[in-house]
Amino acid sequence: MQQTQVITFGIDGVLADRLRELAETRRFRLRETSQYAACRNLVQMAPPSVLVLTLGRDLERELVLLDEVHTCLPATATIVIGETDNPVLAGLAWDLGATFVLFPPTPLEGITEIIDRLLTTATT
User: Fold this and answer.
1) What's the gap between Cα 86 and its chain centre?
2) C-alpha distances in Å from residue 30, one per residue of 6, 7, 78, 105
3) Which residues pair with residue 102 across a beta bridge?
4) Domain residues for 71?
5) Residue 80 bridge partners (DSSP)
6) Is omega for the bond preceding 74 within 30 degrees of 0, making it cis?
7) pLDDT at 124
8) Residue among 69, 19, 2 at smallest CA distance from 39
9) Are the C-beta atoms of 11 and 52 separated by less than 8 Å?
10) How confident is the model at residue 114 (pLDDT cuts 50, 70, 90)?
């Protein structure tokens, strides 16, 4: 049986630390990357249960990745994080199939609970 996997793209700092702690507690594989090509390869090689995607470095590529994951891997939950309050971009992320969209003023502190819930749902 394949181990549950979460892939993150563009996550760093305190949020990355929280996700590492959750991975250790919940015993899932956490794959972290900040490179688009590496993220795309990881998703294609071993589809994750959850993809956490930060938007803002290269919107076109990031949104294409979100759309591809939604279309080709419908069982993969996607959490999209925006760094600034942008209702239009948040709406586009929802339209492209994101499971959760977290843009300011929504706090990121709840992301560990969201991932925990998604993983519980995926394994039951």
Assistant:
1) 18
2) 5, 6, 14, 26
3) 81
4) 5-86+96-105
5) 53, 101
6) no
7) 57
8) 69
9) yes
10) very high
Query: By C-alpha distance, which of 18, 38, 57 is closest to 7?
Result: 38
- The reported pTM is 0.92
**Residue 66's domain is classified under what CATH number?**
3.40.50.2300
Looking at residue 102, its amino acid is L
**Would you tell me how many other CB atoms lie within 10 Å of the CB of residue 31?**
18
Q: In a 3-state reduction of DSSP, which class is residue 100?
A: strand
Q: Is residue 117 part of a domain?
A: no
Q: What is the pLDDT of residues 4-54, one digit of tens each?
A: 899 999 998 888 999 999 999 999 999 999 999 999 999 988 889 999 999
pLDDT tens for each residue of 47-99: 899 999 999 889 999 999 999 999 999 999 999 999 899 999 999 999 999 99
What DSSP string runs through 19-49? HHHHHHHHT-EEEEE--HHHHHHHHHHS--S
Two tokens at 55? Answer: 């938007």
| Residues listed for the chain | 124
